[in-house]
Each structure stands twice: as C-alpha cells, then as structure tokens.
Amino acid sequence: MSRRMPRFARVAGVATIGAVAVVAMALPASAHVTVSPQSAPAGGYVQLSFNVPSESDTAATTKLDVQFPTADPIASVAVQPKAGWTYEVKTGAPSRPVTDDDGDKITQVVSEIIWTADGPGIKPGEFDTFVVSAGPLPTDAKSVSFKALQTYSDGSVVRWIDESQAGQPEPEHPAPTVTLTAATGDTASTAGATPAPAAAPAAAKADDTARGLGIAGLVVGVLGFVTAGLALASTRRRANTGG
Fold it and tell me: Which helix (H) or strand (E) covers residue 148, if one does?
C-alpha cells in the first residue's frame, strides 16, 4: 500500500500554510501613540489630539507624559479638561526668542504636559484621546515632534521618542509628529476647521473592523477549500482501494 500523500492533499496542505502566512501578514501592526491632525499650516493655531491605545494585555495606561519641543517652542498651549484624569503643565524658558501675536516677548513656554489617571485609566484593548489647543506653530521647521512616555499600571513605561528619518523604515517607537505645511493668509482662522479629535480613532477603528472581517472571510474560504479537497482525496483513495 502506497504511503505517498495524495497530490491534492499535498496541495491542500500548502494552501493551508499559505493561508496562515497571509493572515499573519494582514494583521495590523501594533498601535502607536499618535497625534492628529498629522499635518497643519506653519504659523497657525491647531487643536492637537494625542491618541493613546493600551497595548498591554494585562495592564491599563495610567499616565501620559507629552514633551513639547524646546528647539521649536510653541508660545501658547491650552489643555482640555478630561474626566477621570488630572493634568500638570510644566513650563520653562524657550531655547530661542518667542513672541506672541502682539509681538511681545514670551519668557515661559509649555515644556511638558502630564496626564495622570485618578480612576481605572485606559484598560487593555481600549484607547483614549488627550486634547490641547496650541499655536502659533513654528514657521521655520518642517515638522514638530512631541515625545511621549506612556506608563502602565504595572509600572512599565513605553517611550515614544524616536524621530523618523527620511528614506528610513519607521522606528519601533516613533514620536507623535505633525508635518508643517505652507502657511496661508487665513492660517490663524483655520483652527476651528481642525477635525474633531475623535474622528481619527473612529476611522481607524472602522478600518480595523473591516480588515478583520476581510481576514476572517479569507480564512473561512481557504479552510472550506482545504476541507473539500481532503474529502475528495479521501473518496478517491477509498475508490482505488475498493473500500
């Protein structure tokens, strides 16, 4: 009696392995702490939403420490209060001269904002947003990065501080970054047109849901194909052996 695996069964096995590989590649990359919008006009005012997912399977996010740039300081920052969290604003002298809208010299700028949970924080599998209004954005820089430290309830800290380099792969822990576009005549008045802070996370969640359904459909289809193939191979084998 031949021990050779039927050709169709071999093909089905390869198809199964291929399906697993496709699913593995299709799974979304680990979520990052990000900021939205991803771009804004230089010299303008903007509402920034720091989007924070809890990636740990066992611990909640209990603190977010966002560091504002010192090389390209932002003169004015206002924090939106957030239920279940307290915040602390730290200031310092700018590393270079900064003036306000009236041309007056500013001697203190925001250097750091720390949000601390006074409740359960952001539980595993959930995300939340932290919103500030800031401006004017620098006019002599291509982008502004906000290095962030994410602390979990088990004491672990994820440092989102790596700056992306042109032509290089994205670093493992990229710092939230806003790309600055050309200033326009109505830059100051466009702040109100900034997308609502929840828009980006909601869109991302919808996209992840659609992607998950697509992957599930692919897996079901391939497994059905494999099952049918194995059944056909078994039927032919019984026929050939007279069973």
Answer: strand 147-152
